[in-house]
Amino acid sequence: MTAFTYTTPSIEGPFAIPTGLLIGDKWTEAASGARIDIDNPATGEILTSVADGGIEEGIAAVDAAAAAAADWAATPARKRAEILLACFHAMMAEQEWLAYLISLENGKAMSDARGEVAYAAEFFRWYAEEAVRINGEFYHSPSGSNRIMVQYQPIGVALLITPWNFPAAMATRKIAPALAAGCTCVLKPAAETPLTALAVAEIMRRAGVPAGVVNVVNSSQPGPVCSAILHDPRVRKLSFTGSTQVGRILLREAADTVISSSMELGGNAPFLVLDDADLDAAIEGAMIAKMRNAGEACTAANRFYVQRGIHDRFVEKLVERMAALKVGPGTDSATQCGAMINQKSIDKIERLVGDAVEKGADVRLGGKTLEGAGFFYPPSVIANVQPGSAILDDEVFGPVAAVIPFDDIDEAIKLANATEYGLAGYVYSEDLKKALQVAERIECGMVAVNRGLVSDAAAPFGGVKQSGLGREGSHHGLIEYCEAKYIAVSW
Ligand code: NAP
After folding, report:
1. Are residues 260 and 275 in the same domain?
2. Are residues 211 and 346 in the same domain?
3. Measuring CA to CA, how many Å separate 201 from each of 27, 34, 77?
4. Is 249 in the same domain as 300?
5. From CA 116, how far away is CA 97, in angstroms rounded?
6. 28 - beta bridge partners?
7. Residues 216 and 328 grouped into a single domain
8. Residue 311: which domain range?
9. Could you tell me which residues come within 8 angstroms of residue 104 by beta carbon, excluding any fewer than 6 positions away?
10. What is the mean pLDDT of each run of 10 residues along the chain (491 residues)?
11. How far is CA 128 from the centre of its chain?
12. Is 432 exposed, middle or buried (0-12, 13-18, 19+ CB in 10 A)?
């Protein structure tokens, strides 16, 4: 793996990226005047800085969201849908610029970033279509004494907290259903990647989202700021995407005011390849499941369990394909594997790979951080990973494929389920009956059969076990922002 040449990019777009806090109809600075530096993980250079909101600004954002709540809830669903559709078109019109921005602040390859923008915008289109289909229920009580009417009402002001790995999509996956349901919100983007969220918020504002409906508060003190927001009785919803560790803290915080909580947490996806799999298709799927976002995805395949009869050929081909990937700054057009987000990520990958090797794994490709500027780890394959290795328990969140052979399917399922996580899983087999039986037995919220991608705005995304609570995307994602109101009627 060789070093690359880097050329300094610039932030250019249809408008100057706002770097303040969006509160009501204004971009403002923090009262403290504090700012957070935003760097480019491909170089470590500072790109710009954003306002660093504190508790005061967090509560001001809740004030703005609460002030806008009644009007937005009363806005006809058709109108809300039209605004969301305008956001979809406005976002897609800026796909290239937004992708560039994502790539700059997150480090991912432009091809991944373009895909993210399209996926992110799709939530606006999908929820524009869903906004006018929030149906109720009507039935007779079994006793015959009355009728039962159920309507779905907006739950109220929502706090949305997002991670750095999909700075656009994780924001729109929450904002779009919240707005479709008639809720207003406060978004707290990740401190590593706020620029994309700020640009999306400005695009939404220009597309017609009324003042106060979407507010954005960046902060270097997420704990105290989010805690203050969650203890404000006007806030009725928390939707969080991030690590299981922070998810646990937030669930405890939300308990104090009994706030409805949706949690999209960590993953540790198993990728099962059965002997009768189409090898080329399995490799193609493995490359997507492992290398989308250079492995920095909660759905990323973390553990490849490959049946003995196909194992050696799978490893050989995977090494070949991974070795051919071009590593470099995401903004370079040839790059296929961009930078990791920060040194902490590199340290974690090194620790997990080091532990696996110590316990007997073979490094078949990569396995060492690249030298030079930026946070680069090369595409890596480690085979023969032994039971008890930490990489089997913890998401590596980087471009490292850990491969483990297995003999029979029951053993593979047992290994796949031996984790506290349960987000995504993958299975490859030409025998669809067998593949579906395996899919039903894997303990996770989403299983891809003979494909390497599960994410789809139209599908319920979410995990079981400690990977989360609730679902995003699809009609399920909308219901997370509604309360069922039951009215008993006699006439
Ligand atoms: P993280 O450290 O949990 O941070 C996520 C968000 O929570 C950030 O905005 C962060 O702010 C904020 N935060 C941190 N501590 C907080 C606290 N005490 N109170 C309130 N907010 C707090 O996760 P990450 O490293 O950004 O993202 C990677 C993780 O997200 C991985 O585990 C990945 O699997 C998971 N993920 C899950 C999904 C899914 O759909 N299930 C999707 C994407 C990612 P700061 O940025 O200021 O720290």
Report:
1. no
2. no
3. 10, 21, 21
4. no
5. 12
6. 21
7. no
8. 269-456
9. 9, 11, 40, 47, 195, 330, 331
10. 39 84 97 97 95 98 98 98 98 95 97 98 98 97 96 98 98 99 98 98 98 98 98 98 98 98 98 98 98 98 98 98 98 96 98 98 98 97 98 98 98 98 98 98 98 98 98 98 97 87
11. 20
12. exposed
462 in a structural domain: no
Regarding the beta carbon of 161 and ligand 1, being less than 6 Å apart is answered yes
**Residue 10: what pLDDT?**
54
CATH number at residue 414: 3.40.309.10
**Into how many domains does the chain fold?**
2
DSSP structure class, residue 470: S
pLDDT of residue 9: 46
Is 58 buried (19+), middle (13-18) or exposed (0-12) by CB count in 10 A?
buried
Is ligand 1 within 6 A of the CB of residue 470? no
Structure tokens of 381? 């394959």
**Active-site pick, 87, 185, 226, 298:** 298
Question: What is the reported pLDDT for 274?
Answer: 98
83 shares a domain with 223: yes
The DSSP string of 193-242 is -HHHHHHHHHHHHHTTPPTTTEEE---S-HHHHHHHHHTSTTEEEEEEES
Distance CA 50, CA 36 (A): 5
CA distances 6 to 43, 108, 332, Å, are 8, 15, 8
Distance in angstroms (rounded) separating the CA atoms of residues 408 and 474: 35
Are 254 and 210 contained in the same domain? yes
254 within ligand 1 shell (Cβ under 6 A)? no
pLDDT at 295: 98
Residue 304, token pair as written in the block:
């490849």
- What is residue 430's DSSP assignment? S
Residue 228 counted as domain residue: yes
Structure tokens at 48: 């710009």
d(CA 160, CA 33): 24
Residues 453/455/456/462 CA torsion (nearest 10 deg): 140
Q: Is 422 in the pocket of ligand 1 (CB under 6 A)?
A: no
Burial (Cβ within 10 Å: 0-12, 13-18, ≥19) of residue 10: exposed
Give, for ligand 1, the residue of 36, 50, 119, 165 to mutate: max count of ligand atoms closer than 8 Å to Cβ: 165
**DSSP secondary structure code for residue 13 in this structure:** -
